[in-house]
């Protein structure tokens, strides 16, 4: 009868407020029965941009649902589930969802590798527009695998961390380099580097064992991991502005009452906006922190080095366009002309 009363209210806002009041009442009477808790994870530290996003999302969800939905976050690969493994872990019930580096998900669908394509996006505004255009394609790719996209995080531009300065393309064959997805691995190999596509935990192990002497990652990814302990040089090649994608298992989302679903999506939208606002000063803050820890930053990067990498990237972009389909290729063509 009470549910019928809620549904009879004409105003959606009144229905949501009434439902929240009811949820709060039930929760106070028996929290173990009322509360929904999602376990989410990221392979990055809490102070990394992905970690900040999950923290923000958890706070917004708890506030908007009056504690009906809570999120328990695991950071820094605490659960030993890297980005590429997160979709399967969610479907298996080990986690409800997480924040995954999109490039590592391109094996699920090539479109998820769009943001890591080399040298297409050279500004925050272009990155935001390109991802807004791609978002329906991302959502479709996730939905086809039983996952619900929540929000995107755009990362600062990717550069090259190394144990020595890079003067030009002749230095590339001397790099044993960690690439962050299949596309970047192909580009760096085509340019002459000995590249390996490795998740962050394995890459850090390779760095500590002196098997690697270079990383392809942003100042954000490197600063969060204190890469300067091993790699005190950063060359700002502006390779890409990749995204990470926060998601939850579709089944877990669908199990929520409809008013709660709307509040969760509103929390996700607020998180995405705050993540974008964070990006405005993130690069300068990272660079200041890096310099404070002795990192030599080459900005701009040596032109001959960038030219060599751009040349090496052409074949990878063409191959990706053929795999990803016409809608995704149209976004790439748009970005090329900005």
> How many alpha or pi helices?
13
In the CATH hierarchy, what is the superfamily of the largest domain? Answer: Bacterial extracellular solute-binding protein, family 7
Pick out the low-confidence regions.
Answer: 1-7, 24-33
Could you say how many structural domains there are in total? Answer: 2
Determine Rg (CA atoms, Å): 21 Å
CATH fold assignment of the largest domain: D-Maltodextrin-Binding Protein, domain 2
Give the helix/strand class: alpha/beta
The 3D shape can be described as globular
Helix content: 40-55%
Description:
The chain is of the alpha/beta class. The chain folds into two domains: 2-155 and 243-282, D-Maltodextrin-Binding Protein, domain 2 (3-Layer(aba) Sandwich), CATH 3.40.190.170; 158-241 and 284-336, Bacterial extracellular solute-binding protein, family 7 (D-Maltodextrin-Binding Protein, domain 2, 3-Layer(aba) Sandwich). It is 50% helix and 17% strand. It has a six-stranded mixed beta sheet with strand order 7-6-8-5-9-11, sandwiched between helices. Strands 2-1-3-10-4 form a five-stranded mixed beta sheet, with helices on both faces. α7 packs across α12. It is globular. The N and C termini lie far apart (57 Å). Mean pLDDT is 92; it is low at 1-7 and 24-33.
From the structure above, extract its key features.
2 domains; six-stranded mixed beta sheet; 338 residues; D-Maltodextrin-Binding Protein, domain 2; disordered N terminus; 11 strands; five-stranded mixed beta sheet; alpha/beta
